[in-house]
Amino acid sequence: MTTVPTAPSTPPPPPPLPLVRLRLAPHGALPRRIDGVWWPYSRDLLTQLPKMLAALPRAWGDITGVTVDAAAWSAAPGRMFVANQVVRLHKAPASPHAPDRVVLLSPGLGRWDLQVIPPDATEEAAALLTAAALDDRRPGADGEARPPTPTAAAGPHGRVGPTGRGTRAPRW
Fold it and tell me: Where in this protein does the record put region Disordered (predicted)?
C-alpha cells in the first residue's frame, strides 16, 4: 500500500469581524444635537462598547470617557481597557428630555452624542429613529429611511466610518 503525501492543512480563515450598526451625521459647519445613531446588538456594555469605539472615525481621537444611561445598560465597572487605553465609564440617569444616549469624550477634541436604538428594535423602527435623530430624509434604494449601516469592526486604531465631524467645541 502506498501512501500519498498530502499538503499540510491550512487553518480555516478566521470568522469575519462582527458588524457594528452605526450611522454618523454628515459633516457640517454647525454643531448638531445628535452626532450619530448606534444600534447595539445587546445591552451588554462590556461587549458592545469596544466594538462601537473601534468603528469611530480616527478624527474623533481616543475616546477616554463614556457616559451612558444607568438604567439602560448591564452592570459594568467604572472603567475598562479598550484599544490599549483606559476608558472611564460614567452611568447617569437618563434625561427626561432626551432619548437614550451615549456621550463620548475625547480630550482636546470634543464631545459627541450618539442616540442609542434599543437592541430589540425592528429594522423599520431603527430606520425611523435614525431618520428622526439625524434628520435624514434621504431615501434609500427602496424610498425609505435607512437604519444605521453595519460596518465591519476594525482593529484598535483602524477605525471604520466616515471622517470625523470635528465641529463640536470641547465642553469642559
Answer: 133-172
